[in-house]
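Ticket #4471: structure output looks truncated?

Reporter: J.K.
Steps to reproduce: submitted the chain below (61 residues) through the standard prediction queue, then opened the result file.
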Amino acid sequence: MFNFVKQFHTQDDGAITVDWVVLTAAIIGLALAIIATIGAGAIDHSNSVGNRLTSQEILEY
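Returned output as attached by the reporter:
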């Protein structure tokens, strides 16, 4: 039993897979947070521009 625990402790097969999964999840989470922040600001700005354009009069010649 002690040999099993010793061998299990020294084996690192698959550890890099866990690192990549955690790193990828962190990058995706950061990207979603950035998209949500920029998206909210873009919607507010586009509504402001739309209201400004709606209030403009069109000149006829």
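Triage note (M.O.): checked the attachment and the full token line is present. The chain has a mean pLDDT of 87.
Status: closed, working as intended.
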